[in-house]
């Protein structure tokens, strides 16, 4: 019975650490999105409001293309995890070209910040999966503890 209680304590402590890690990751996502948005706004100011706008984004009638970054599911230690990788397909498009050939450094910076944000999102999803697994372990331990009491 003591061993089960010790395992429950360790699992709960692990859960708290994972929750803290997830909150830190979510703050990184928020900070990155804010920073990237500021760089987009600076680019729009430099190039003019029509040069960096929704009108430049592809529409349904645009040619097909693949995302330059994709998310793969891998298995590490019997756990599924998301991993962000560069897409090597031939029809990938550099989104900066939608706004012209000579774009300001702020637009390049915004692109790299948003690409980094994708890594934070994948990390946050991985932490969420670990949290769910940890909760399932706690439920199993609680059920086991109840069977020991009876």
TrEMBL record:
Swiss-Prot/TrEMBL GO biological process terms: vacuolar proton-transporting V-type ATPase complex assembly
InterPro entries: Vma22/CCDC115
One Gene Ontology molecular-function label: unfolded protein binding
Protein name in UniProt: Vacuolar ATPase assembly protein VMA22
